[in-house]
Amino acid sequence: MQELTDQGFNSAIGDGVTLVCFSAAWCKPCAAFKVTLHQYAKTESAPPLFVADIDVCPLSARAYGIKGVPSLVMFRDGVQVASTGALPLAKLVQWVRDRGAK
């Protein structure tokens, strides 16, 4: 998983399906969810996955209406199509599949 900045955010989400986990270094649930995201990122079905710390990417977090962390957002060709909070691995795989990604 690659860490994003506000400057590189739009280019990262611009092509195909991508997932961005908005999180914060001080957020304990975010740290726990990152473990699940790392497991998911290793699967063949995982689309590109990025992490955006809300303290590093405040403009992006604001632009996509992030009100709490962790927040996982799915983008398709740069357009936000779905969002959720932290999920266990099996539910994460199903959530992504149900929204038309691999």
Describe what you observe in this structure.
The chain is of the alpha/beta class. It has a single domain, classed as Glutaredoxin (3-Layer(aba) Sandwich). It is built from four helices and five strands, in the order βαβαβαββα. The protein has helices at 6-12, 28-41, 58-63, 89-98, and strands at 2-3, 17-23, 49-53, 71-76, 79-84. It has a five-stranded mixed beta sheet, sandwiched between helices. α2 links the parallel β2 (17-23) and β3 (49-53). The two termini are 18 Å apart. The mean pLDDT is 94.
Give short descriptive properties of this protein.
Glutaredoxin, 5 strands, 36% helix, 25% strand, globular
Q: Report the sheet-strand fraction.
A: 25-35%
Q: Give the strand order, joined by hyphens, for the main sheet.
A: 1-3-2-4-5
How large is the radius of gyration?
12 Å
Might you state the CATH topology name?
A: Glutaredoxin
The first-level CATH class is given as Alpha Beta
Count of extended strands: 5
Query: What is the succession of H and E elements?
Result: EHEHEHEEH
Task: Kindly report how far apart the N and C termini lie.
Answer: 18 Å
Sum up the overall morphology in one term: globular
How many structural domains in the coordinates?
A: 1
Describe this structure in a few short sentences:
It is built from four helices and five strands; from the N terminus they run βαβαβαββα. The chain has 102 residues and is α/β, with parallel strands linked by helices. It has one domain: 3-Layer(aba) Sandwich (Glutaredoxin).
